Amino acid sequence: MHALLQAGTLSKAEVARETGLSGQAASVIVNRLLDDGLLVKLDKVRGQVGQPSTPIAPNPEGAYALGVKIGRRSAEAILINLLGEELGTSRVRYEAPLPEPTIATAVAQAVGLLGHLSPTARSRVVGLGIAMPDEIHAWSAELGLAAGALDGWRDADVAGALGRETGLPVTVHNDAAAACAAEMIAGHAITSRSALYIYLGTFIGGGVVIDGHLYRGEQGNAGAIGSMPTGSAAPGAPPSQLIHSASIFLLERALEAEGIDPAQALTDGAGTEANAVFDAWAGAATIELSRAIVSALSVIDFQEVVVDGFLPPAWRDRFTQRLSAAVERFNRSGLKSATVTAGSIGPMARVLGAAMLPLKARFSPDTDLLVRSGAARTLAQPRG
After folding, report:
1. What CATH fold (topology level) applies to the domain 63-179?
2. Could you report the per-residue pLDDT of 281-309, keeping only the tens digit for each?
3. What family name appears in the similarity comment (predicted)?
4. pTM over 0.85
């Protein structure tokens, strides 16, 4: 299944070569997967030397998965098929991620999307992935909430609530790591075996790719770039963190101060005033983020830095260009160069990654995500 999802279509003989199986073993397994409805036969290919071959392909209706993203400003859900094609989405925006109503919203979204499937298709849903920030309870002040307003997240069982209501196996992932996974599986920006992935969300986060695999760390916290200390601090005070200088919530505040609707500006980026506010925020954010990147390069020899996030494409590209220029201005003696490029998926990356990870776990020979440079990918990017 992994080989076919990577290649798109293969004959039985090609499946044998790709997997290292004998021709007989490959044929037996393919026939079983055909019987199970996970694969389909396509029309025979004629006109080549030898007997006509019959291409085998993944059946889009062979399996499905759900993804749910719980964020600081919105909850999103997506239903995808085996090829990663979007079948339905839901997005609910809120002012604050208060635990009980947010979990109730996520449950309603997931159950609602499952309701679009027939009973047969419903039985083919392999799992539900949740993408959410780590320690969401710790950021009340940054979201303008009273102290302790988010403490309910400390003991909240999001996976349990969604599992009970959907009957599906549930896995929980860091939201930025899930976005990195989506870029690795369905995007085209990560092409090297080592990359630092940065997601510009309400709070900035990241992911780490080492030796072609998504590296989660021994404690599951690799890529927590938002917690990196920045700049100088007042005497006796701890340094600030990158989350306080390169996160979208700061851009939202600046837009609101100018009487601009942040939701609208972050959708299309239109308007001279909105662009001026964005440029001012980007100028400050790239100064601190470039320092963090160069610091990261001195620890791990990343080949590339990929930047995506909840920004209109034009703003994301301008931010990436400014960031690349800022990195170039550093004294990087003793360090190898790393390209700084824009991601290819955008705001849907976190929820899409959450949905794709259960499929990856079910149909991959191992649970580690692997970058395959130049390989064909049948997993589709979402529309829009």
Report:
1. Nucleotidyltransferase; domain 5 (3.30.420)
2. 999 999 999 999 999 999 999 999 999 99
3. Belongs to the ROK (NagC/XylR) family.
4. yes
